Automatic annotation (TrEMBL):
Keywords: Oxidoreductase
Domain (Aldehyde dehydrogenase) ranges: 26-397
Its EC number(s): 1.2.1.9
UniProt cross-references to InterPro entries, sorted A to Z: Ald_DH/histidinol_DH, Ald_DH_C, Ald_DH_CS_CYS, Ald_DH_CS_GLU, Ald_DH_N, Aldehyde_DH_dom, ALDH-related_metabolic_enz
Catalysed reactions, semicolon-separated: D-glyceraldehyde 3-phosphate + NADP(+) + H2O = (2R)-3-phosphoglycerate + NADPH + 2 H(+)
Organism: Salix udensis
Active-site feature positions: E266
Name this polypeptide is given: NADP-dependent glyceraldehyde-3-phosphate dehydrogenase
Family as reported in the entry's similarity comment: Belongs to the aldehyde dehydrogenase family.
C-alpha cells in the first residue's frame, strides 16, 4: 500500500517499519527499535513503527518551538489556505488511510472512509472558524474601571499558546487527531502529535497530508514509541505549552504530572439513555442499538446503560433484542456491524465485566460468545448496582445495561 503510493517515503527500504516525522522529514529512530501494531482481526503483526528516543523528542519539540515563532506571525488567511489544502489532500487519499484503520483498529471499511472524509471537512471548518473568531479583537476605553478617565484605550486580541502536545485515542486516530491539530495550527501554535499505538500508521498517513500541503518545517512533529520510554517525558516536557488529550484513565495521570500547563481533556463516560412511559419505543430501540453498537461500542459517547420505567421495560427489551439479532458479526473488511475489539486485553476486560454480572444474577438476553478479539453483541437485563458493568465503562460491543425497577 504505502510503498507504491504518495506515502512511499513513510516506510524504510524494505517497507516494514514506518518512520516518524521531525523537522519536515520522515526519519528512522536512532534506537534501532520498533513497536509492533497487531491486527485485531488476525491477531498478528500488521505494521511496525519507530520506537523514538527522548533525545528525538527533544529535537521535535525544539523544532516546534522555533517554527511556532514564525508561524504566529503568518497572516490568518495564509494559515487557513494551508489548512484547506491539507483537507483536500486528506480526502483525496482517503482510501489508503481508511485501509490502515481497517487493519489497525478493525473499523468497518465504510466507517473508515467516513472518518477520513469528515476529518478533512473538520480541518476546513476549523480554518473558516479560525479566520472569523481570531480575526476579531476588542477595543475598550478605560473609564469602565472605577477611578479612570477616558484618556486611555485597551485593544485585546487572542495570541497562541506555543507548542501543543496532541494525544488522540485509538478509536478515532485520524478524526480526533485533526480535531486537535487544525484548531492549534489556525490559532498560530505548533503541534507535536503522539498517536496511539493502534492507529499510529493511519495517523502518520494523515500527518503526511499536512506535509504535502506545505506547512513550514518543524511546525508539525509526530513521534511514535513506547509509553514507558517517552510517555511521561512528553507530558512533563518543559517545552510543551498545552496538552490536548482524548482517552481514559491515562488522563488522570497526565493531569497530575503536567503541572500548570493548560490541559484539554476528553475522557470516558458511562452514558445513560432514559426511557419514560410515553416514549416511542420503536424509535427508542433503534437509537439504543445504534448508539450502543456503532463501532462495536468502542466510543466514549456510546450508550452504555439504559434506565427504563418498569411499565415499559419488558416491551422495550424485546424490541432491542429483535434488533440485536439482525446485527452482522465478523471482519471489518466485510463492513460487519460488530467487528473485533482493538486488543486482547480489551476483550479480556469486557469478559471480566460480563462474568461478574453473570455471577451476580444479571439476565442474559443472548448467549455470551467470544472468538479471539471478536465478541458477539450482548444485552444484559435486570442489572443491579453492585455489578461492575453497572458503573464501569466496557468499551465493547453494546454491553448496554438495563436497570429496571430501580428508578
Amino acid at each position: 500500500m504505502a510503498g507504491t503510493s504518495v506515502f512511499a517515503e513513510l516506510v524504510d527500504e524494505d517497507a516494514t517499519v514506518f518512520k516518524f516525522y521531525s523537522d519536515g522529514e520522515w526519519k528512522r529512530s536512532s534506537s534501532g527499535k520498533f513497536v509492533s501494531i497487531i491486527n485485531p482481526t488476525t491477531r498478528k503483526t500488521q505494521y511496525k513503527v519507530q520506537a523514538c528516543t527522548q533525545e528525538e523528542v527533544n529535537k521535535i519539540i525544539e523544532s516546534a518551538k522555533t517554527a511556532q515563532k514564525s508561524w504566529a506571525k503568518t497572516p490568518l488567511w495564509k494559515r487557513a489556505e494551508l489548512l484547506h489544502k491539507a483537507a483536500a489532500i486528506l480526502k483525496e487519499h482517503r482510501a489508503p488511510i481508511a485501509e490502515c484503520l481497517v487493519k489497525e483498529i478493525a473499523k468497518p471499511a465504510k466507517d473508515s472512509i467516513t472518518e477520513v472524509v469528515r476529518s478533512g471537512d473538520l480541518v476546513s471548518y476549523c480554518a473558516e472558524e479560525g479566520v472569523r473568531i481570531l480575526g476579531e479583537g476588542k477595543f475598550l476605553v478605560s473609564d469602565s474601571f472605577p477611578g479612570n478617565e477616558r484618556t486611555r484605550y485597551c485593544l485585546t486580541s487572542k495570541i497562541p499558546l506555543g507548542v501543543v502536545l496532541a494525544i488522540p485515542p485509538f478509536n478515532y486516530p485520524v478524526n480526533l487527531a485533526v480535531s486537535k491539530i487544525a484548531p492549534a495550527l489556525i490559532a498560530g501554535n505548533s503541534l507535536v502529535l503522539k498517536p496511539p499505538t493502534q492507529g499510529a500508521v493511519a495517523a502518520l498517513h494523515m500527518v503526511h497530508c499536512f506535509h504535502l500541503a506545505g506547512f513550514p518545517k518543524g511546525l508539525i512533529g509526530c513521534v511514535t514509541g513506547k509509553g514507558s520510554e517517552i510517555g511521561d517525558f512528553l507530558t512533563m516536557h518543559p517545552g510543551v505549552n498545552c496538552i490536548s488529550f482524548t482517552g481514559g484513565d491515562t488522563g488522570i495521570a497526565i493531569s497530575k504530572k503536567a503541572g500548570m500547563v493548560p490541559l484539554q481533556m476528553e475522557l470516558g463516560g458511562k452514558d445513560a439513555c432514559i426511557i419514560l412511559e410515553d416514549a416511542d419505543l420503536d424509535l427508542a430501540a433503534a437509537n439504543i442499538v445504534k448508539g450502543g453498537f456503532s463501532y462495536s461500542g468502542q466510543r466514549c459517547t456510546a450508550v452504555k446503560v439504559v434506565l427504563i420505567m418498569e411499565s415499559v421495560a419488558d416491551t422495550l427489551v424485546e424490541k432491542v433484542k429483535a434488533k440485536i439479532e439482525k446485527l452482522t458479526v465478523g471482519p471489518p473488511e466485510d463492513d460487519c456491524d460488530i467487528t473485533p475489539v482493538v486488543t486482547e486485553s480489551s476483550a479480556n476486560f469486557i469478559e471480566g465485566l460480563v462474568m461478574d454480572a453473570k455471577q451476580k444474577g444479571a439476565t442474559f438476553c443472548q448467549e455470551y460468545k467470544r472468538e479471539g478479539n471478536l465478541i458477539w453483541p450482548l444485552l444484559l437485563d435486570n442489572v443491579q448496582p453492585d455489578m461492575r458493568i453497572a458503573w464501569e465503562e466496557p468499551f465493547g460491543p453494546g454491553f448496554t445495561c438495563y436497570q429496571n425497577k430501580l428508578y
